[in-house]
Design a protein that fits this description.
The complex is a heterodimer of chains A (110) and B (140). By secondary structure, chain A is mainly α. Helices cover 82% and strands 0% of the residues of chain A. Chain A is built from 5 helices and no strands. In chain A, helix 1 runs antiparallel to helix 3, helix 1 packs parallel to helix 4 and helix 4 packs antiparallel against helix 5. The mean pLDDT of chain A is 82. With 140 residues, chain B is mainly α. Chain B has one domain. Chain B is flat. The N terminus of chain B is likely disordered. The chains are: A mainly alpha (110), B mainly alpha (140). At the A-B interface, helix 1, helix 4 and helix 5 of A face helix 3, helix 4, helix 5 and helix 6 of B.
C-alpha cells in the first residue's frame, strides 16, 4: 500500500518535471538531450508505472482508486504551486467525475 | 534559449495550442491502451519462455514483437505528452490520461471478450463525461 501511494506521488512529481522541462524544449536537439528536467521526469514517471503494476498484481480497485485519486490531487497542487495554474470548478468537477467513473469501472470489472 | 517561460509570470495563453494539447493527449491515451494490451500478451509469452531475469526481460523486449511494439508506442506517447505539456496546463492534461482506462475496458470487451456489465458501462460514461468537462474547461 505504501508502495502504491508512494508511486502515485512520484508519478505526479514526474509529470511536473516533464512539464517544467517541456516548456524549455525548442527546435534544437540540445534543448531535448541536455534537458535534465525531462530526464528526471521520464525516469520518475516510469518508476511510478512500475510501482503501479507491482501494486496492481496484488489488489485491484483497492489499489487503483487511492493511487489514481492521490496522483490527481497531487497534480492539481503541483500545477498550482509551480506553474500558477488556476484550480477552476471545471477541473474539480471533471476530476471528481473521473474518480467516480473509475470506481464504477473497477466494481463492474470485479 | 527561452527565458520568459521559466519565470513566475504565466506565459500568454494560446487557446488553439491548448485545444491541440488536449486532443493530442486524448489520442495518446488510445496508444497507451493498445501498448498495454500488447505488453500484456508479450509478457505472457516472456513468462512462458522462463527468461524473467533482468537480462532475459531486456532481450525479450527486443525480440518479442508485441513487447517491442508496446514499448515503442509508450515512447511515442512520451513525445506526445511532452509536446502537450509544453502548450497546455498540467492540471488538465494529467487527469485526462484516465481516458486510457476507458479504452482498456472497451478493448477488453471487444478483443479479450470480457463481459460487459451495466456498472462498467456507467463507469465508462461517467469517465467520458469528466474528461469532456475537463477538456472543454482546459481549452479556454
Amino acid at each position: 500500500m505504501a508502495l502504491v501511494l508512494g508511486g502515485s506521488v512520484i508519478g505526479s512529481v514526474g509529470a511536473a518535471f516533464l512539464k517544467s522541462g517541456a516548456v524549455l524544449v525548442e527546435k534544437s536537439l540540445s534543448s531535448i538531450v541536455l534537458n535534465w528536467r525531462l530526464a528526471v521526469g521520464a525516469v520518475t514517471y516510469l518508476l511510478s508505472s512500475v510501482l503501479f503494476v507491482k501494486g496492481m498484481s496484488h489488489g485491484e480497485l483497492s489499489v487503483l482508486f487511492p493511487m489514481v485519486s492521490l496522483s490527481y490531487i497531487c497534480s492539481l497542487v503541483w500545477s498550482k504551486l509551480f506553474f500558477h495554474e488556476a484550480i477552476t470548478s471545471a477541473k474539480l468537477y471533471g476530476v471528481g467525475l473521473i474518480l467516480v467513473g473509475i470506481v464504477c469501472l473497477g466494481l463492474g470489472s470485479a | 534559449m527561452s527565458t520568459a517561460t521559466t519565470g513566475t509570470q504565466a506565459p500568454v495563453v494560446n487557446h488553439a495550442k491548448r485545444r491541440e494539447a488536449v486532443f493530442i493527449i486524448l489520442a495518446g491515451t488510445f496508444l497507451v491502451a493498445v501498448a498495454q494490451m500488447l505488453i500484456k500478451s508479450g509478457a505472457d509469452r516472456l513468462a512462458q519462455s522462463g527468461q524473467t531475469g533482468l537480462i532475459g526481460t531486456a532481450i525479450g523486449i527486443l525480440t518479442i514483437p508485441p513487447l517491442f511494439a508496446g514499448y515503442a508506442l509508450y515512447a511515442v506517447f512520451a513525445v506526445m505528452m511532452i509536446y502537450s505539456l509544453k502548450h497546455g496546463e498540467m492540471s488538465v492534461l494529467f487527469p485526462l490520461i484516465s481516458l486510457g482506462f476507458v479504452w482498456v475496458a472497451i478493448l477488453s470487451v471487444f478483443i479479450l471478450h470480457e463481459a460487459m456489465s451495466p456498472l462498467k458501462g456507467a463507469g465508462i460514461a461517467i469517465i467520458v463525461a469528466g474528461v469532456a468537462i475537463l477538456g472543454r474547461g482546459g481549452s479556454h
